Structure formats: C-alpha cells, structure tokens
Amino acid sequence: MRVFVTGASGWVGSAVVPELIEAGHEVTGLARSDASAGALTAAGARVRRGSLDDIDSLRAGAADADGVIHLAFKHDFGDFAAAGAADLNAVQAMGDVLAGSGKPFVITSGTLMLAMIAPGRLGTEDIVAGPELATAPRVGSELAVLAMPERGVRTSIVRLSPTVHGDGDRGFVPRLIDIARDKGVAAYVGDGANRWPAVHRLDAARLFRLALEKAPAGSVLHAAGDPGIPFVEIAGAIGGQLGIPAASISADEADGHFGFLGSFVQLDNPTSTELTRQRTGWQPTHPGLIADLKEGHYFAAGPRSKY
Fold first, then answer.
1. Which of 87, 153, 248, 257 has the fewest Cβ atoms surrounding its Cβ within 10 A?
2. Mean pLDDT of 26-54
C-alpha cells in the first residue's frame, strides 16, 4: 500500500515507518521541519510538508494514499483541550477524504482514558466512551472514527499504553527518573498497587502495521505488552537502578512531588489485549518495562525527558 503517516518522525512514528517499509509498503510521512523531512528521507520514506494544523496538506496526503496512519498529536499538557480539538479536526478532515473508499484509517488514542470511562474495571477493547464525554480530549476523535465505517472507511483505533518504552524514550518514564534523581527517592502513592500498562516501542509499531493491514472496520486495539504493572514495582525498579529508596507518599503530596504527573501516577489502568490479539494476531516479543529499565539505558546522566 501507499501509506500516509502523520507523526512519522516522532517516537512511535519513527518505528512505524521502517516497520511498514520492511513489510513492502510505500510510506509518505508528514513533516513540519527540515529535520523531520531529513529523518524521513533517510528512513526511505517520501515527504509531504505540513503540520497537524495544515488541513489542506492532511487532505492531500490522505487523498494520495491507499491507507492512513495518524500518529501526530500536540502533547501540550498546559492546554490539552486545544490539543484534542486539533486532533479531532485532523481526524475529521482525513476521514472526509477517505469516505466511500473502503481504505484503512488508523488513529491513535490512549489506554488511560479507560481509567476515566470505566474506573475499577479491566479495560477491554469494547469499552468506549458515551456521547456525554465527546468533548474530552481523544474521546471525540475515537467517537468520530467509530462512526466512519458507516461512511465506507475501514477505521481502527490503537490505544497506546501511558508508557511506550525503549532506548531513546523521552516520555513519562524518563520524567519519573528525573524526579527521583532530583528528590533522592523513587516515590509511589499510597500502597502503589495501582497498575500501569506498558508497551515496547517496536511492539507498538508492529500493531500499527497489523491494524493497517487487517483490523476489522470500527475496531479498537490495545498496545499493552504489559497489561498492568503495579506502580510500586516501577518505582522499585527506578530506585534500584539509581541506588535510592522507593517510598510511599500520600495522595495530598503527589502533585507537589510529581508535578503534572501527580494525577497520572495514581491512575489504575489494567488493560486487556485479548481482542487485539484475536483481531490482528499481534504478539509482543520485546522486553517488558521492568526488564527494559534493568537494561540501564534509561539511566544515563542528566535529564532525559522532553517534559
């Protein structure tokens, strides 16, 4: 297939592009900078210049493709509502172009929304938000895509775990390490029994390819190699590598200790992948998060997170 990929030079996208090319697909990636364009060219992909706000470029990219994988997202936690609105606009624009074609359209979401729409339950792929939550970030995009099969688009949603880990990660886990190193303690909230799913970056990339190739229309897929690691174990692994203690803090202390991650580190997000495996044949093969932390690459000196 000729595949248009947004976010193609990002953390996940830069793994999806070679995964697609190695499988025989031709990739065109959206690039908003010379650096991104150069990275895509070096990876063997074609380049379409534009951004998430450049609706004309998104429409043209979708029109020229046999399928679309949408990974781009504005990770602005200071204005997450605006980020969600921009994502919904992009999804609707590309979906309009693909209407009636039967072509695959894969978008990205997150498993953490399950902790909001189904608290206290195992998060399965058939759990979706109701229309009353349509204005919540990511939820609006999910609902829009789930309605698109009626318009002749083979849509699917890949919900990523809160940590997509691997060598080069600059996301939540490096931020937790930066905080622990700075404060001299790897903290968890309460008893730390709340669970975080996790997925290796290369396993996530394979799931996006499988979604493009074979996911049924309107399906939701979960990228979770680890279905749910107790947060106390994540803190213990971080503390062990840094040579500092892991210790409990109270919920009242969480925001002061973790900053914007204060609410995230308390979420319980156990996530099932049973339907994902049935629908696509996906099997994660790379190390889980705890094993990846023990490899040591997360613990080079100096700040590592982009946040």
1. 248
2. 97
